[in-house]
Design goal:
Elements lengths: L7 H18 L5 E7 L3 E3 L3 E7 L3 E9 L3 E4 L5 E3 L2 E8 L3 E14 L5 E2 L4 E8 L20 E7 L12 E6 L5 E8 L5 E3 L2 E4 L3 E10 L5 E10 L20 E7 L14 E6 L5 E8 L5 E3 L2 E4 L3 E10 L5 E10 L19 E6 L14 E6 L8 E5 L5 E5 L7 E11 L4 E11 L3 E5 L12 H28 L11 H32 L4 H7 L4 H16 L4
Parallel strand pairs: 2-10, 12-17, 19-24, 26-30
Antiparallel strand pairs: 1-3, 1-31, 3-7, 4-6, 4-8, 5-7, 8-9, 8-10, 11-13, 13-15, 14-16, 16-17, 18-20, 20-22, 21-23, 23-24, 25-27, 28-29, 29-30
């Protein structure tokens, strides 16, 4: 009889070899190829950088751009296990597209040629902001049609007021001609009716008309009476007296707060002094030394506007009044600027975006925020609350976020008060597009190549073999008559051979013994078994059964 051995150690050795093949075949340094832009949005004429990451790769790339961009430098760079940055300049408004195509690329660690697809990045190009020319100031034409001075020479009259339009004056008979003079309040106004006027005896009416820049008019009337020759002339006290009632200088002290630009024909001036100046000195000088001045000297100032009138009276009684408007600044207590809105003003009280930080930090008085989104999300998880429980909050533009710049508008409104508040979040979405070469994720069958599928198949087959072998071993161990190469099997073979020989001899002896007993003694079948001695065959059979029971413990 022939026995076969089942070598479990051989199966285990094969399993270890296959496991090492699987483990070491996967230890390939991952290589990557990605393209990214330094900016997602630029202005026409601005530059941006394109970075090509060829980590773990070696080879040549082809860089192209559309009509909105110019590639500066090498458009066919050679990249060896590193990255390279290419500068680009925008030319036109729209989308600047740069495409990087691997031409001849291989894995740097294995030298294996790789077929990689091209990658494209898009940069939004905005038009330059053109600052419009400031609109010319709207010129409102003046309607000022009054005179600030009116008179005649010689024999001028006194008491002129710009709002009084009729004057009566008398001149001696020997005055046959006078010169009418006038000055308008507004330098752009036009005056007619002035100049030399011939006088007849009696009343002579002269009209002086002022036409404002806007076209409206105002007429002043002079009734000049020339005495008749029969009238006894009395000496005129005002004859030959000066009518000069103007100032040659006007100002205030302390000198550091004095104003500049005084003109003798300009009647109004404004000046501002700090709050700690409680008093100023007003000084003035007349053109004519014979004129009298009132209103000068020390003037106490209250906070706010203070009006000071300086009056000049000419020798003949003509008067002119100059006005000074002195403003003393009010005392102020600096208060910190409020950092939050008033409670009664509609606004957001909080604005949160899950896993994203706003820039700048949220403040109800700040209406525009920016964030950079590097995850490939189509929308953001926005939580906005208003300081008014009756307000309605609408979020617009938070769907289908695209690469580049996105604007999300948060509109807060209250229909009862008709108040609104608008906030904006500018989202710059820039998801890095990279391709991993040679990296296998064993949890994702979509990443398995042919090699990985073969290794998985071998591993499964090996596991099945181990399970079947284990089952066979267990079953064979429970069977006493299986073909096993047991310890002592050779001794058992010899015993069985001897048993075969003894069996043949025993047959002969049994026949002889039976004949002898039949002759000498008569016995039944029952006592035959009891009385006859055991033959050698029976003894060998007992030995074999005893031996089998003792050796069966090794199975």
């Amino acid at each position: 009889m022939k026995y076969k051995k089942i070598k479990l150690t051989t199966i285990f050795f094969i399993f270890v070899i296959l496991l090492n093949i699987i483990l070491f075949s996967n230890k390939v340094e991952a290589a990557s190829f990605s393209v990214s832009a330094s900016k997602s949005s630029v202005t026409v004429g601005d530059s941006f950088d394109i970075t090509i990451n060829g980590k773990g790769l070696t080879g040549k790339y082809n860089i192209t751009g559309n009509s909105n961009v110019t590639i500066n430098g090498d458009t066919n760079p050679w990249i060896e296990n590193t990255s390279v940055t290419i500068n680009c300049t925008t030319k036109g408004e729209g989308i600047a597209t740069v495409t990087v195509t691997p031409v001849t690329v291989a894995d740097a660690s294995t030298g294996e040629d790789l077929n990689l697809s091209a990658k494209t990045v898009n940069v939004t190009v905005k038009a330059k902001e053109v600052t419009p020319d400031p609109e010319p100031p709207t010129t409102t034409k003046s309607t000022e049609a009054r005179l600030r001075d009116l008179g005649i020479t010689p024999n001028d009259f006194k008491g002129f007021k710009r709002d009084t339009t009729t004057y009566n004056v008398e001149v001696p008979n020997n005055v046959s001609k006078v010169n009418v003079y006038a000055k308008a309040v507004d330098s752009n106004a036009k005056i007619s009716g002035t100049g030399n006027v011939s006088l007849k005896e009696g009343t002579n009416t002269v009209t002086v008309t002022v036409t404002a820049e806007a076209g409206n008019t105002k007429t002043y009337t002079l009734n000049i009476t020339r005495k008749t020759s029969s009238t006894t002339d009395e000496p005129d006290e005002t004859a030959n007296k000066s009518s000069e009632a103007r100032l040659s200088n006007l100002g205030i002290r302390p000198k550091e707060y004095d104003f500049s630009g005084f003109k003798r024909d300009t009647m109004s001036y404004s000046v501002e002094v700090p709050n700690d100046i409680e008093e100023v000195e007003v000084y003035a000088e007349a053109v004519s030394s014979k004129a009298k001045i009132t209103g000068t000297g020390n003037i106490s100032l209250k906070e706010g506007k203070n009006t000071v009138e300086v009056k000049v009276t000419a020798e003949d009684g003509t008067e002119k009044t100059y006005k000074l408007e002195i403003t003393r600044t009010a005392s102020t207590i600096e208060e910190p600027e409020p950092t939050v809105k008033e409670e009664n003003e509609l606004a957001l009280s909080s604005l949160l975006i899950k896993n994203i930080t706003l820039n700048p930090k949220f403040d109800p008085s700040i209406y525009e925020y920016k964030i950079d989104l590097t995850e490939d999300k189509s929308s953001l998880d926005i939580e906005a609350k208003s300081n008014n429980s009756d307000a309605i909050i609408e979020i617009i533009g938070n769907q289908e976020l695209k690469d580049g710049e996105n604007v999300i508008t948060i509109l807060v409104s209250n229909s009862e008060t008709e108040e609104t508040a608008t906030y904006q979040i500018i989202v710059n979405k820039n998801v890095s597009k990279s391709e991993i070469v040679g990296r296998v994720d064993w949890t994702k069958p979509s990443t398995w190549g042919l090699k990985e599928k073969i290794l998985i198949g071998v591993a499964i087959a090996l596991i099945v073999i181990i399970i079947v072998a284990t089952i066979i071993k267990i079953k064979l161990a429970n069977r006493e008559d299986d073909d096993f190469d047991l310890p002592g099997a050779e001794e058992l073979d010899r015993a069985l051979a001897e048993h075969q020989e003894l069996a043949e001899e025993d047959d002969d002896m049994q026949q002889s013994y039976t004949q002898e007993k039949a002759v000498s003694h008569t016995y039944t079948d029952d006592n035959f078994e009891e009385e006859r001695p055991k033959t050698d065959i029976e003894k060998a059979q007992e030995y074999f059964e005893s031996y089998s029971k003792r050796r069966g413990k090794h199975f």
